[in-house]
Amino acid sequence: MSLVVGVGARRGVTAREVCDLVAAVLREAGRGPGDVVALATVAAKAGEPGLVEAAARLGVPLRAHPADVLARVRVPHPSDAALAATGTPSVAEAAALAEAVAVARTTGPDGPDGPGGTGRTNGTDRADGADGADRLTGGELLVPKRRSASPGARVTCAVAVAYRGERLPPEGSGYHRGDAVFDLPGAVSNR
Questions:
Q1: This prediction's pTM
Q2: Separation of alpha carbons 122 and 117, rounded Å
Q3: pLDDT band at 57; cut points 50, 70, 90
Q4: What are the backbone dihedrals phi and psi of residue 17, each rounded to the nearest 5 degrees, phi first?
């Protein structure tokens, strides 16, 4: 199962803060760093040194998505603070989902450049929402937005599954598909 970690961060966040939260969230999901194929964020944060270094430490690319694209992704925890700071009501969850769709659309059995892979594109699936708005769809959150426990909570992250054919099981340890509630021991707060 290929995972994408969406990351939102305040200016000056350190790679250690990012990596510590990513590790905690992956433990919560029962997964490890080897399952992660990319970190994703909003384009305005793509040059943040702590994010760039965290991706390098994890050995994955840092992918950036424009705020207007992320603003069309349906997420369970939109934030007025994120909207004011970045132009999208979600960075971590929306970036994870948007990148998971891009990865799933381009990944063959041995990755984007392996047999069956088509190389990475920024393509996304779209559907009309109930309100008629063009919204991005696809991908599934394995772990919704979590904040670092450090004072000032300078980083958030969410984990999405990039699937091609396989889907998340109807229920897993702490996973309730319908309402995206996660009750795992040692969970990091999503509020």
A1: 0.73
A2: 14
A3: very high
A4: -60, -45
